[in-house]
Amino acid sequence: MSGKGRGNNGVTKEYFVRRVASKTGLTQRQSAHAIEEFVNAVKAVLRLGDPVIMVGFGTFKTYKRPAHVGINPSNGEHISVPDRFFVKFKASDKFFENNMRPSRVKRKQ
């Protein structure tokens, strides 16, 4: 697999489409559709407030950041920041054991 789609800022969806297509025999269009459906399914579950648990890989979970008063850095004015939801991903221990050995991981400098 060539490095196309891999850059300094991470891996693109294009890279995953090509990778899935080459490993499964699906066309790139079919691979793109499968990846898009996976992402849509994850989003749908998270919108319901449920975690997405993938044994051996990790867990996607939503959290609520409460409303608070912030400060505008340009003028020091106090502003009201509304509450909001965000998503966290926590890789499983098994994922780290199998894939993140120090010899295989390049750390960003």
What report would you give on this structure?
This protein has 109 residues and is of the alpha+beta class. Helices cover 36% and strands 28% of the residues. The protein has two domains: 1-50, no CATH class; 51-109, HU Protein, Chain A, CATH 4.10.520.10. It has three helices and seven strands, in the order ββααβββββα. It is elongated.
TL;DR of this structure?
By secondary structure, the protein is of the alpha+beta class. It contains three helices and seven strands.
Give the helix tally. Answer: 3
Structural class: alpha+beta
Helix content: 25-40%
Helix and strand element order: EEHHEEEEEH
Shape: elongated
Cα separation of the termini: 25 Å
Q: How many domain modules?
A: 2
